[in-house]
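Extended Data, panel c. Modelled sequence:
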Amino acid sequence: MTIHIKGAKIMAMDASHGSDCFDGDILIEDQRIVAMGAALPEAEADIVIDGHDKLVTPGFVNGHIHTPEALFRGRYENLPLEMWMTLAYFLVGDGQLAPRALYLRSMLVAMDALRNGVTFLADDILEPPLQSMETLGCIFQAYDDVGIRANVSGHVIDRPIADTIPFFPEILPDDLLAQINAGKPPTVEEYVAFAEEAFSLYHGRADGRLRFMVAPSGPQRCTVELMQAADELARANKTAFHTHIVESKIQAVAGHEFYGKTLVQYMHDLGLLNRGTTIAHGVWTTDEDIALLGAAKCSVVHNSLSNMKLHSGVAPIRRMIDAGVNVAIGTDGVSTSDTPRMFDAMRTAAYMHGVTTGDNEAWLSSHEVIHAATMGGAYSALLEDDIGSLEVGKKADLVIMDLRNANFVPLNDPRKHIVYCENGSSVETVIVDGEIVLRDGLLTKIDEEAMLDEFRELMPEIMAKHEPQEEQNKAFLPYLQEVYERCAAVDLGIHRYGGNDMPSWP
């Protein structure tokens, strides 16, 4: 398949142009861009796209998302991370879905993402109580069918849940502690066997468009042995080591309570900070942590939406960029941000840092935000040689936006329109791996309305199972509230909230 985009405004995000736009053509053959430039010679293309009044950008890279939360979009609010997780993922109970529901749940997110110019998802799948090859296969099948590019994880926790939250075991009544401890986490050997089978079955599926990645949940939730085994698997398979570090203040306190040091320092001492390490959040990192991350060429995925909704704090992104940390942008969970749309995440990332400092030169620019949402995300996924920018030889993952849309009228600086004005309504065409997956606003590979109708029909059955278990897990909330208050009172020497008026609980 050959596609010729003629006479468009191009934001390539490559080393030569950055986010500066230029007018030109793009020629695509099969999966890759084979030519770019002003007025390319006429080619016998299968498809010719008139680029007049169109803006072409790289496809946006969602560096961190949890699609299982698609079930709970618009369901929760005003809950800190650990309390929200108790209701969405359960401390006790079984949230496992039937295969068709898993497929439709993943499809729902992928459809919304593609319609909004997102061509890649780093999808971190926590599937309690345990992930299986069948459940993982449902997700890969959905992404194969809809045409999106994705790294899909096997998220794992191998420490007893109560032991992953500071003060929790001593606060919980014996009967609730016994309920949590009744669950048996996987062994290191079991996870390694699972991951090796997943790499064998799914890694490189759809001509390399779909990949498996390892995702140990976090250093406070995983044993040293599992973290090291996951790092070895990631290196051997040339995929990212995807984890969570200091998303919340509770997690920051956990580092000192469990290990006597920050979680980043702990990772460094174990030799687990390297080019392939991608850290979701990093909100409560210290300056010393940031220096370690920069020296190791790690990536941090900035999840501005969920960090605000869960009151986790504001990540020190300017300091990270200045220290050489690669920064990507993610939407995080579809329940903690209520969206997989990168336009929402980009806008929030651009706005939120002004509340932490009056120094306007420290705020993020539209160029930095778009870079994080394209090349920064590609680097974090170890795919910067294939996606993230429009260059000859790279995979043809791109978005075509209509400059006649109200979001671009009058047209000033396209960068600022994308970050501050765009809401997805300008997205006209999306190409992934050289294939048109959205044309004139319509998904081309699946019947979107039929998928939505089927998902709506399934939801009453899904919620009939979820709601009683959600109610059962509410018993843990008062004790997690006590943990939250105790951790809030701990002086870590850093402050990551927008204001200084946190309550002083007794």
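Residues 60-380 form a domain with the TIM Barrel fold (CATH 3.20.20.140). This feature is highlighted in the accompanying rendering.
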